[in-house]
Specification:
The protein has 239 residues and is an alpha/beta fold. Helices cover 37% and strands 20% of the residues. It has helices at residues 11-22, 34-40, 52-61, 76-85, 108-115, 149-157, 174-184, 200-210, 228-238, and strands at 4-7, 27-31, 45-47, 66-69, 89-92, 103-105, 121-124, 141-145, 165-167, 186-192, 213-217. A six-stranded parallel sheet has the order 6-11-10-7-8-9, sandwiched between helices. Strands 3-2-1-4-5 form a five-stranded parallel sheet, sandwiched between helices. Helix 1 (11-22) packs parallel to helix 9, helix 3 (52-61) packs across helix 4 and helix 7 crosses helix 8. The protein is elongated. It starts with a strand and ends with a helix. The model has no long low-confidence stretch (mean pLDDT 88).
Amino acid sequence: MYDVVLFGGTDEGHKIADFLKHNGINYVVCVATEYGSEVIENKNVIVGRMDDKEMSDFFIKNSVKLVIDATHPYAENVTENIKKSCKCKYIRVIRDEKKVQGRHFDSVKSAVSFLKKTEGKILITTGSKEIKEFSCIADRCFARVLPCEESIKLCRSAGFKMSNIICMQGPFSKNFNTALMRETGVKYLVTKNSGKSGGFDEKVQAAKECGAELIIIDRPKTEFGVTVDECKKLILENH
């Protein structure tokens, strides 16, 4: 039985989980992957993806009073499933977005359409979920993905050579990013505006130092929600 269910192996989720623990609130954190569990660094964690029916059954079974959605801003499908299945109080936590100089695109697909018209090597740091979109230019791309079998399989299916698949777990410093970009000789760095927990600032700094062009996949424009601090106030009000 849980009073609060928190979704999201993100930096925001980490802060909210600490707040719930500190205030003695009965809660559990749901994350999709083991990596998300490591980010949260909390014992009250359930690992594994759930569809909307599984979420609904979970909420009912545990008499959940409050659901907090602190999932990644690009995980739109997950957020929709949470909203659809949640019959109790719901809070969506969003990140403050910082506008950064570079080429901005509303999707990976549109970024690839641009990159197809360019020349030079590309470093992709957007993860393996949409790596198949880069299959048409895989011969000149390096993919930095999480070190797991699924990531490698997806990259290989997209046409990436093993020598161009970099399996590492972040966060990465500016100096590390710079060294990697210089070693691979990339002219373009593809990234999502993933905020502090995603090492976005370190990527921006490294690209600038290496003279590489930033290809930024922007967050969904229609996202609404509250900040971490606002969420904390709402938790206390609803507890």
